[in-house]
Structure formats: C-alpha cells, structure tokens
Amino acid sequence: MTIDLQPALDLRPALDAPELLAEPVRRALSAFDSDAAARIRVAPIDPGLADTAEFCAAYGVALEASANCIVVAGRRGEAVSYGACVVLATTRADVNGVVRKLLDARKASFAPMDEAVALTGMEYGGITPLGVPRGWRVLVDARVAEVPEAIIGAGIRAAKISLPGAVLAALPGVEVIEGLAREL
To answer: Residue ranges of the YbaK/aminoacyl-tRNA synthetase-associated domain (predicted)?
Structure first.
C-alpha cells in the first residue's frame, strides 16, 4: 500500500521542527540513532482535528496508515504498571487479553486521561510512543510495523509524526507483538 501524504501534510524532518514536538518526544528523538531519526518527519495540523477520524478525513490520510497510541494501566494488587500500545486506527488493542498478560496484571484498562497526560508529559490526543517514561513497555501491533508510512501523534495536538512502521518497530525498547490488536 502506497499512501501519498505530501499534498495534505506539510512534512519536514522532525529534528528540524522541535516546536512541533512535546518535550519528551524532542528528548527521545535526539537520543535516537541518526539514521532512524532522519526518517521521522512531522507536520503541523489543526489541533481541533487531532482525533483520528477527524484528522484522517480532513487531511486525506487512510485509516490504515493512522496509528493510535494508548496508555494502559495494569494492576496486580496495589502495584500498577503502565504501557504504551500502538495499534492501527482500523483495529482495537486487546487490553483485557493480550495487553493484560504482557503487563503481568490481573486487570488492565485505559489509563484515565488526566493520568496519561501527567505521566507522559504529552497532550491527550497527541500521545505517542516516542518519549514515554522509562520503564514502560512499548507494545506495537505487528500490523503497524508493516505500514510503509505510519502517522501518529507528536506529543501535542497540533502536529503529527510520520515514520515507516519498520523504523517504529526498530526503536529502542519497542516490542512488536503479533495479535496485540483485533480488527474493528
């Protein structure tokens, strides 16, 4: 699948546009291998259109190329562990099955919005796996790794990152999981 993003999005090298990235994302990008970092681009968007369906419709991006990053909280007794799950917009993370087991939790759920924002230092609707806190598991559905060019949050609602799925899959700490998500 080839998706032409250039007409709708003003993509530029992410390292050349730090104002379009949340602080944790900027820090993470600056620590990446230079070849990987060079393949990550960012584009400004209307922050009112950051939610997936609205964004895809307004910017002509196929849902199959749009990835969502969700923050999940896993609980076992009093212990809470967090993870970032990346799935295509055409799928839904298997939070109560696969994710719960991977987090070694009795119960797993989406982290509350305020908690996700406070823990990541990113804006809700722009959360991305790049720059999540140390110690978090970053779980990427195998289908995302196969996308030629994935669009995901930039840590702020006013921008989106574009990167090959293979680059996302190869970033430090990322675990590619077969069956992390189910088709909608």
So the answer is: 47-168
